[in-house]
Design brief:
heterodimer, A: 158 residues, Alpha-Beta Plaits, SH3 type barrels, 3-stranded antiparallel sheet, 4 helices, B: 313 residues, alpha/beta, Rossmann fold, 9 strands
Chain lengths: 158, 313
């Protein structure tokens, strides 16, 4: 099934953001991490488990009338590090963005270790996870040094 | 150098140089020479959980060098009980002192404090995390006994899961090319991420439940306390803890210069009969806490320890 066919499963958007190459089944998590939920007023379309040459299957999200910022997209590094992002203006791709995984993920998720100093919600310093390996992704808390379980981590989104 | 949170904050050269300073400071630590290198400096002792040796040795170290100490005191009567954050406590003490020694029940608290403070933080233990000042005195004790740190065979025994002293020490020893035998009950094994780190350094590491099997070839046996509360019931504790007790009769085949260490307090894991053997070093080790911390306080406060102190070091 062609790429073009996949994209047409939902109608083309006039203005907004298309996030492609999301690992299959992670689409909902991507929406959560972007803070797109019931309270959002913009139209959002999502297709799940569509065939992909590169990934086998994948999810795709289209968010209308909202251009996601690079900072917002970088939050997705945990769940969809290889996602392709296109900003659409007047039905055309105006910009292509890639998710940038820096050396640290700051104030996106909380450390999963129950005895970490950062579990006190009143402590004001930033939540910081260091990237120790990129493929596969391995993270450790900057403060307590504990390795992070990625499946558990996505439940700790700030 | 901002502070000492984990042993990764020190290079091998820095470790050896601080141990050299400690060696020269021995007559000062023993009270034979007065050397007020830290006169006018104030140490803030922030112990959010109980400590005897670490807190007292920091205080002694500072006072032997002519410095002064302010204490947080009992956590139960401080602002902490009113819900003050660590961040706020550090902001306050940071303004009162030149350097802070801290112990905290939460892992990562020392790094957090360092990020919040302008003065250097000396990590005196953070949860089950790190205890690098203990490691420095342990390394000093090992070097005193063997004249070197490299290439030794060291058994770390007991509670390796929650024991922060062995977490920091194992990292440092493997950096000096020591071979490690990790002897513990399966429930209290060294955390896998630490074993992975040690292996990544190319260290020879063996995990076993058998403490006594390796004693004859060891240069150092480092015992730790197995805590009753780690076990579901007392019977299981008694069964497991029994396999990690040393008696003088276990040491018959040991190398002549093998030393037995323990961060103390001990309960039953080293029988008093061991105290009289040539292998026992744990009381000297506890004393070395003063001299190692003196050297660390000088280094972190950027005060040079003179090459010649006198007093017969």
């Amino acid at each position: 099934m062609s790429q073009e066919h996949n994209m047409r499963r939902v109608t083309a958007i006039r203005n907004g953001t298309v996030i492609d190459h999301i690992p299959a089944g992670h689409g909902m998590r991507v929406l959560e991490m972007l803070g797109i939920n019931k309270r959002s007023s913009v139209p959002v379309s999502m297709v799940m488990n569509v065939p992909s040459k590169k990934m086998g299957t994948k999810d795709i999200i289209k968010v209308e009338d909202r251009e996601l910022t690079q900072d917002e997209l970088n939050r997705l590094a945990l769940v969809a590090p290889d996602a392709h992002v296109a900003i659409i203006r007047a039905y055309s791709v105006a910009e292509k963005l890639t998710i940038e995984l820096g050396d640290e993920i700051v104030n996106v998720v909380r450390c999963t270790f129950s005895n970490c100093i950062t579990t006190n919600p009143r402590e004001p310093l930033a939540h910081r996870l260091k990237i120790v390996a990129r493929v596969p992704l391995e993270l450790r808390c900057h403060y307590c040094g504990r390795p992070q379980d990625l499946d558990e981590l996505v439940n700790n989104v700030i | 150098m901002p502070g000492l949170i984990t042993m990764d904050d020190l290079s091998n050269e820095e470790i050896l140089s601080i141990l050299d300073d400690a060696q020269r400071l021995l007559p000062v630590a023993e009270g034979r020479t007065y050397l007020p290198l830290l006169q006018g400096k104030i140490l803030g002792n922030l112990f959010f959980e109980p400590s005897t040796r670490t807190r007292m040795s920091f205080e002694t170290a500072m006072k032997r060098l002519g410095g002064d100490v302010v204490n947080l005191g009992d956590v139960k009567t401080s602002s902490v009980v009113k819900g003050e954050t660590l961040f706020d406590t550090i902001q306050m003490v940071d303004g009162y002192t030149d350097i802070i020694a801290m112990r905290h029940p939460r892992q990562g608290a020392a790094q957090y404090a360092q990020d919040a403070a302008r003065v250097p933080i000396l990590n005196g233990g953070d949860g089950a995390g790190h205890h690098p000042t203990q490691t420095m005195l342990d390394l000093f004790t090992i070097q005193q006994a063997h004249g070197r740190l490299d290439g030794l065979k060291v058994i770390l025994a007991g509670d390796l899961r929650y024991g922060r002293t062995v977490h920091s020490l194992s990292h440092a020893l493997t950096r000096f090319g020591c071979e490690l035998i990790l002897a513990s009950p399966s429930l209290l094994k060294m955390p896998p991420e630490i074993v992975a780190d040690l292996n990544a350094h190319g260290a020879k590491v063996t995990e076993t439940e058998d403490l006594l099997g390796s004693i004859e070839t060891a240069d150092v046996v480092y015992m730790t306390r197995i805590q009753k509360e780690r076990f579901a019931d007392e019977d299981e504790y008694a069964k497991v803890a029994g396999a990690y007790k040393l008696h003088a009769s276990n040491l018959d085949g040991a190398k002549e210069d093998m030393i037995i260490m323990h961060p103390l307090p001990r309960v039953d894991e080293i029988h008093p009969s061991v105290d009289q053997t040539r292998h026992a070093r744990y009381f000297e080790q506890a004393f070395n806490g003063v001299v190692a911390r003196m050297a660390l306080l000088c280094r972190l406060l950027d005060v040079e320890v003179p090459a010649d102190i006198g007093g017969g070091a």
